[in-house]
């Protein structure tokens, strides 16, 4: 695997958060909170094995998965889904019934795109 996702990443910019969360039917209180929270994401990568922890002042979510194997994921809105992570052109792609999540590294920046229907949430984080 050419891309190393390991490290700590701090969110600094996001677009379309409210529209995306409404598209996946997230609770309204969570939608209001989303614009004020800047999560810290820690990624541990060992080959095709990943542990990703997202921390906010309210809670932490940790997901562990292997590329190519079905895993259970906790979502931003607190639900649990089953999905298979794939590696496509150096990007981690996770497709579920509700949304698609694409994570990529561009220099010292991590870009995440969450798509549900015609709505896409874009989150940009810097390595810290």
UniProtKB/TrEMBL annotation:
A GO MF term: lipid binding
Coiled-coil spans in chain: none
InterPro entries in the record: Calycin, Fatty_acid-bd, ILBP
Pfam families (UniProt xref): Lipocalin_7 (PF14651)
Family: Belongs to the calycin superfamily. Fatty-acid binding protein (FABP) family.
Protein name according to UniProt: Fatty acid-binding protein, liver isoform X2
Organism whose genome encodes this protein: Carassius auratus
Lineage, top ranks: Eukaryota, Metazoa, Chordata, Craniata, Vertebrata
